[in-house]
Amino acid sequence: MCGIVAFRGLEPALPALLDGLAKMEYRGYDSVGIALNPGDGRTLAVHRTSGRIPALTALIPPGERSTTGVGHTRWATHGAPTAVNAHPHVDCSGSVAVVHNGTLDNVSELQAELVAAGHVLTTEVDTEVIAHLVEQFLPHPPFLAGGVAAPSADDVARAVEQATARLRGSWALGVTVRGLDAVVLTRHRSPLLVGEAERFAMASSDLLGFAVGTHTVRELDDGDVVVLGSEQAWYHRGQALATPRAGRPAAPVEPLADMGDAEDFTAREIDDQPAAAARLVDSLSERLAGGLLLRELGVPARTRLRLVACGSSSYAAHVTAAVLGSVARIPAHVVVASEPPPPVEDPDVLTVAFSQSGETADVLTALEHWTDPVLAVTNNPRSTLARRADSVLDLACGPERGVAATKSFTNQVLAGAALAVALAAALGRLSTEDVAGFEAQLRAAPEHMAATHRLAAPPADRLARDLADEPAFIYVSRGAGVPYALEGALKLKELAYRWVEALPAGELKHGPLALIQEGTPVIAVQARPHDRLAVNAREMTTRGARLITVGPGEDADLPVKAPAVEPPWGPLESVVALQHFARGLTRLLGYDVDRPRNLAKSVTVE
């Protein structure tokens, strides 16, 4: 889930590299590093830390003026998150520096081969073998000594291509070599973009990583090798390309969002949910009737859907599937993207891929199994998923810098519900009056979220103080409330590091009821009708559970503002109360709400 950035220009590289790393820190923050190349034969300056970007900045001497460099922010896969294992990784002489996003499958055999050839490996990280392979394939040592010429751009490009021919797995690479004022790039099954400006060229894993002034963006294809030097050169599998890949205008570079008056980004994003939901609903609601939304998106009105997602997005997909069934009478199958079923050809299926970042590697890989039309539901309409899909439904959330999904989840639910209503209307399964009724419910959702935000925050904080010492929780619901119980439980796992069992309440008596003992906190998300959950509640309290209810009414422990008639997407507002509880408990325990351990915002490795 790492992020890489590279720079070659007519001005110092450091500011753009640090800014790009800060914008891509959502991809991983276990460690961070940078390699600066003077380009004139002097030694590469490599700085790495297990801290975050301010710690890296403190390592770099003042007055750094190198105009070429690569940087990396890491989510650890091979090797612990230490400074030694941080990128960039270097060869035996420290003259080849490599940053890498992806994972290598044949690292053990390559390590054994390199050690047998006399290379000295000093880390646990798969990326290090790439630096040594590049070193091995260079025609002469990549450093100035005894009048030996520095390697040419062609030398390094060929060495990178020969090195990657030995790899199995996925990679996006930025390579810089002592004595060559350039960065060489390549990719295979991991995104990498080139950005161009008047005075510099950059590379980044993400559009966010580019500096102000970037006017054109080009995407590398698998097998491309690109040299960012005094001139730009593109190759594909050893053959020079007459022209670079087609470019597109760069999006305006936005500054990093700030927290405003909030104590953390997660708090700000919880607070922003009603406004984000209103933006989305306003953009969709008048286009639901008569199939207008589907026509504008270019989506065929299929009668079976495959919904592909991971994590929070999968819970939003389950809500969407329920709405498709109840409103449109359309069967929808939710696929956990990391475990796709064997491919079965079906000419009448629409695949809908849910991904907040649009860079989720499991989702992108799962899509390789099918040839159906793909609709991407994402907050990043310029992402890899968006480029892969046939059409895109933009969540319009704005930036979400807290790692745990908040407004992106609620907008995915609303987008999925709107899609289901639009599809039902296009197939003639809803009357004009029915569509208008669902539009009214969608328009009311942001108001109920805003009211719940105000209503639930104080009791959520009180409950967090009361339960701060509890090591484990059970989350339950029935019917349309189950995905929200699962999402609320995930928030507690992600942020407060508590063990949580989350399941439909009816499943308790099929085994998990054995977990309940005196005082076990059970958080019950109410969905209508309430009587089924009430029966399960008695089963739990009889065995000593401490029941905590999330729902409407003055007697609820976490009160919500629910509509008079529950919409087919269920008690969406309940998730706002659960977000407040997870955040409150996390802060009481002293953990970082925005950057939980072991996680990253965008899961870019399988």
TrEMBL record:
<keyword id="KW-0032">Aminotransferase</keyword>
<dbReference type="InterPro" id="IPR046348">
    <property type="entry name" value="SIS_dom_sf"/>
</dbReference>
<feature type="domain" description="SIS">
    <location>
        <begin position="293"/>
        <end position="429"/>
    </location>
</feature>
<dbReference type="InterPro" id="IPR005855">
    <property type="entry name" value="GFAT"/>
</dbReference>
<keyword id="KW-0808">Transferase</keyword>
<dbReference type="InterPro" id="IPR035490">
    <property type="entry name" value="GlmS/FrlB_SIS"/>
</dbReference>
<dbReference type="InterPro" id="IPR029055">
    <property type="entry name" value="Ntn_hydrolases_N"/>
</dbReference>
<feature type="domain" description="SIS">
    <location>
        <begin position="463"/>
        <end position="596"/>
    </location>
</feature>
<dbReference type="Pfam" id="PF13522">
    <property type="entry name" value="GATase_6"/>
</dbReference>
<protein>
    <recommendedName>
        <fullName>Glutamine--fructose-6-phosphate aminotransferase [isomerizing]</fullName>
        <ecNumber>2.6.1.16</ecNumber>
    </recommendedName>
</protein>
<feature type="domain" description="Glutamine amidotransferase type-2">
    <location>
        <begin position="2"/>
        <end position="231"/>
    </location>
</feature>
<dbReference type="InterPro" id="IPR001347">
    <property type="entry name" value="SIS_dom"/>
</dbReference>
<keyword id="KW-0677">Repeat</keyword>
<dbReference type="InterPro" id="IPR017932">
    <property type="entry name" value="GATase_2_dom"/>
</dbReference>
<keyword id="KW-0315">Glutamine amidotransferase</keyword>
<dbReference type="InterPro" id="IPR035466">
    <property type="entry name" value="GlmS/AgaS_SIS"/>
</dbReference>
<dbReference type="Pfam" id="PF01380">
    <property type="entry name" value="SIS"/>
</dbReference>
<dbReference type="GO" id="GO:0004360">
    <property type="term" value="F:glutamine-fructose-6-phosphate transaminase (isomerizing) activity"/>
</dbReference>
